[in-house]
Amino acid sequence: MIMPLIKGLQITLSHMFKKPVTLQYPTERPQIANTFRGLHALNVSHDKAKCVACYLCPTVCPAKCITVEAGEDQNHDKYAAKYEIDMLRCIFCGYCVEACPVDAIRMTEQFELANYSRADFTFTKERLLEKK
Ligand code: SF4
Ligand code: SF4
């Protein structure tokens, strides 16, 4: 009767001095691998989005969750008047980043994807430009 109790205490005590395998999230943050594919962000050049609305990323996206609408500026250059990603459908495959010919989109280290409404899972161009 007493031996199993001592054995149990031994195991408990031995674990008290080991490095914990869990993190005190969210105060402690996990180390993110540099190959991690997190939430998307649009890249900027000369204070505007680099996207030239070529439609390659919505074409290659297997989840069909990217919506692009092209516009034309005063210099007759194409730009993305609308750029949206439905994060509820995205499978984080990274094809959109690979396909982009002008490095206009990247995947960040951010992984927290919680919202209160379905509409908040639609990442608009403005939200994608805010991401670091
Ligand atoms: S990561 Fe994949 S599924 Fe998500 S938007 Fe890009 S291409 Fe589509
Ligand atoms: S993000 Fe890149 S691939 Fe997608 S529409 Fe814009 S320029 Fe084309």
Automatic annotation (TrEMBL):
<feature type="binding site">
    <location>
        <position position="61"/>
    </location>
    <ligand>
        <name>[4Fe-4S] cluster 2</name>
    </ligand>
</feature>
<comment type="function">
    <text>NDH-1 shuttles electrons from NADH, via FMN and iron-sulfur (Fe-S) centers, to quinones in the respiratory chain. The immediate electron acceptor for the enzyme in this species is believed to be ubiquinone. Couples the redox reaction to proton translocation (for every two electrons transferred, four hydrogen ions are translocated across the cytoplasmic membrane), and thus conserves the redox energy in a proton gradient.</text>
</comment>
<dbReference type="GO" id="GO:0050136">
    <property type="term" value="F:NADH dehydrogenase (quinone) (non-electrogenic) activity"/>
</dbReference>
<feature type="binding site">
    <location>
        <position position="100"/>
    </location>
    <ligand>
        <name>[4Fe-4S] cluster 1</name>
    </ligand>
</feature>
<dbReference type="GO" id="GO:0005506">
    <property type="term" value="F:iron ion binding"/>
</dbReference>
<feature type="domain" description="4Fe-4S ferredoxin-type">
    <location>
        <begin position="81"/>
        <end position="110"/>
    </location>
</feature>
<dbReference type="GO" id="GO:0048038">
    <property type="term" value="F:quinone binding"/>
</dbReference>
<dbReference type="GO" id="GO:0051539">
    <property type="term" value="F:4 iron, 4 sulfur cluster binding"/>
</dbReference>
<feature type="binding site">
    <location>
        <position position="90"/>
    </location>
    <ligand>
        <name>[4Fe-4S] cluster 2</name>
    </ligand>
</feature>
<comment type="similarity">
    <text>Belongs to the complex I 23 kDa subunit family.</text>
</comment>
<dbReference type="GO" id="GO:0005886">
    <property type="term" value="C:plasma membrane"/>
</dbReference>
<keyword id="KW-0408">Iron</keyword>
<keyword id="KW-0004">4Fe-4S</keyword>
<keyword id="KW-0830">Ubiquinone</keyword>
<protein>
    <recommendedName>
        <fullName>NADH-quinone oxidoreductase subunit I</fullName>
        <ecNumber>7.1.1.-</ecNumber>
    </recommendedName>
</protein>
<dbReference type="InterPro" id="IPR017896">
    <property type="entry name" value="4Fe4S_Fe-S-bd"/>
</dbReference>
<feature type="domain" description="4Fe-4S ferredoxin-type">
    <location>
        <begin position="42"/>
        <end position="71"/>
    </location>
</feature>
<keyword id="KW-0997">Cell inner membrane</keyword>
<dbReference type="InterPro" id="IPR017900">
    <property type="entry name" value="4Fe4S_Fe_S_CS"/>
</dbReference>
<dbReference type="InterPro" id="IPR010226">
    <property type="entry name" value="NADH_quinone_OxRdtase_chainI"/>
</dbReference>
<feature type="binding site">
    <location>
        <position position="93"/>
    </location>
    <ligand>
        <name>[4Fe-4S] cluster 2</name>
    </ligand>
</feature>
<keyword id="KW-0472">Membrane</keyword>
<keyword id="KW-0479">Metal-binding</keyword>
<keyword id="KW-0874">Quinone</keyword>
<comment type="subunit">
    <text>NDH-1 is composed of 14 different subunits. Subunits NuoA, H, J, K, L, M, N constitute the membrane sector of the complex.</text>
</comment>
<keyword id="KW-0677">Repeat</keyword>
<feature type="binding site">
    <location>
        <position position="54"/>
    </location>
    <ligand>
        <name>[4Fe-4S] cluster 1</name>
    </ligand>
</feature>
<keyword id="KW-1278">Translocase</keyword>
<feature type="binding site">
    <location>
        <position position="96"/>
    </location>
    <ligand>
        <name>[4Fe-4S] cluster 2</name>
    </ligand>
</feature>
<dbReference type="Pfam" id="PF00037">
    <property type="entry name" value="Fer4"/>
</dbReference>
<keyword id="KW-0411">Iron-sulfur</keyword>
<feature type="binding site">
    <location>
        <position position="57"/>
    </location>
    <ligand>
        <name>[4Fe-4S] cluster 1</name>
    </ligand>
</feature>
<feature type="binding site">
    <location>
        <position position="51"/>
    </location>
    <ligand>
        <name>[4Fe-4S] cluster 1</name>
    </ligand>
</feature>
<keyword id="KW-1003">Cell membrane</keyword>
<keyword id="KW-0520">NAD</keyword>
